[in-house]
Amino acid sequence: MIVARSLAELGHRMKPSAITVGKFNAIHRGHVEMIQKTRQIAEDRGLHAVVVTFDRHPASLFTPDSVPLDITGASRRVELIGQTGVEACLVLPFTDELASLSPADFVSQIVNDGLGAQCVIVGKDFRFGHNAEGDVDTLRKLGTLHGFDVVVVDDVSDESGDRISSSLVRRFIIGGDVTSAARVLGRTHAMQGEVVHGEAKGRELGYPTANLSREATGLMPADGVYAGWLITEDGSRYPAAISVGTNPTIEGERDRVVEAHCIRPPGDLYGQIVVIEFVDYIRGMLKFDSLDDLIWQMGKDVDTILLRLGVSV
Question: What pLDDT does residue 199 have?
Answer without folding.
Answer: 62
